[in-house]
Known about the structure:
seven-stranded mixed beta sheet; 13% strand
Amino acid sequence: MKLIVQIPCYNEEEFLAAAINDIPERIEGVSSIDVIVIDDGSNDRTVEVARAHPRVKKVVQLPYHQGLAAAFRAGIEAALDMQADIVVNTDADNQYPGREIPTLIKPIIENQAEFIIGCRDIDKIKHFSCFKKFAQKMGSRVVSSICGRQIPDVTSGFRAFNRSCALWIDVIASHYTYTLETLVRLSSQKVRMAHITITANPPVRGSRLMGSAFEYIVRSLVDILTLLYIYSPLRVFIFLAAFFGLPGLFLIARFVYYYFMVSVQQNLPTGYEQSLTIGVGLLIIGFFMLLMGVISNLIHTNRKILERILFQLHKKNRI
């Protein structure tokens, strides 16, 4: 069984060698362990450091800085081309300890799971503020509810995929990270998932993806909403239809009540025509939202069929 550890990098000349050195040289149940480094347009000596390291089998260079999601996707493609049976993704700053890789891939070796996430214990991460810990937990709960799986750390980049699972992977909703979309995408394909708890290494630098906790929250919310729209469109548009339609029904009911109970019985002008006008307008918007939901769900179903066709083609071409 061939294991490939992929490391996406952007200006990581200082920490890359330590991350590679931390990867085990032998693991029970694995015949070979190769390392590939994906350079995301670095402007330092990251590529030179990677090529000089004896354990690096391949260096993939992106022509310019495209973001972590593009680097991750390029790494998966390279690993599949190298006939990997298991792909492990880790960070170049050695945030995720390489000693945990045997534990991470064990469920795959034993055929108990296809996709494993190494989840950090958020409460024990000292450099996270209370606000970021709260946001991390809430985001994990929201994404877990979308996926129908309980994952305590949905943003962890320490992950393992078997070959079949890696063939499903693509990232289309985000350019700066892949963590949420791959989780939602693989859940939609009913991939067998599991997670283990890991102890992350202390940070050696600040995050390059997020400038602040506020930016982290905003980007995560945008990602979650985008994923909902792509992977659960009917749920989104039913919510929007109810958001507009129910107040519309209430306003129409209000007009009908005052028209028959007040105006007709007491021979008085209703004075509530504005309720009817606004209510009908909201009801029309709600109806069109529901119609868009049906159309989007049909497109979503068609996309899943196309994904399955592409999966079979990729599987056939990479045998």
